[in-house]
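Moderator note: this is an archived Q&A kept for reference. The question asked for a predicted structure of one protein chain; the sequence and the answer are reproduced below.
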Amino acid sequence: MPKKHLGQNFLYDQSVLSRIISSAELGQQDTVIEIGPGPGSLTRLLAKEVKKVLAIELDEELFRRLKAEFAGYPNVDLVHADALKFPFEDIGDFKVVANIPYYITTPIIFRLLEARKSLQTMTLTIQKEVAERIVASPGGRDYGVLSIMIQYYARAEMKFIIPKEAFSPVPKVDSAVVHMNILDTPSVVVKDEKAFFRLVKTAFSQRRKTLSNSLKSLGEDIRDKLIAARIDPQRRPETLSLEEFARLSDLL
């Protein structure tokens, strides 16, 4: 029985699961981490495609069932753990393929990005609204802090939409599969990453205001700095590209 407090919505449709596998661009020598394998539907397909599957399950009852069911799979390792606390840095190069519980989507993506030296790709089934924010371009309402923070480290692409009716129990919203290739170097060069992300978060904390107003806390001369960075102070944060944020960050 799916547990609501763990955000469990299971996907059984074999055609959808096969599309997820295809979207993940897997090879026979890959190590894949699956977060929240649930009933193991995706795990079985992954085991046929890759060298090793490491499936991390938080639910103790599900973990016991999976342990018994996959006892005959030599390339499937099951771990009873919280993925947010898992030491991803210790397992060598890996890819992630997972149907992520909605309530931990953003935290788990950022936790995985902390291990980006070993992380190669992420193929995640997540809430459609979050997927749209991840892949958004400047100028739209979906573009914001999440878009920039992920696109700084990865090239993200929405592969396809999964209607909510494909899940059991049926969630309130549709899902989408997003594939992220981790970049060898960040998409823009900045002098100070912490300063860059601080600037982005400050700008979007008041996204309806012009930049000259939303960035006042960063200095009384912010208008002059914007002009020096060749950015109109009357623009709003959602119109700035990563390159423009990087240019302004370096000036500040």
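Archived answer notes: The chain is about 35% helix and 20% strand.
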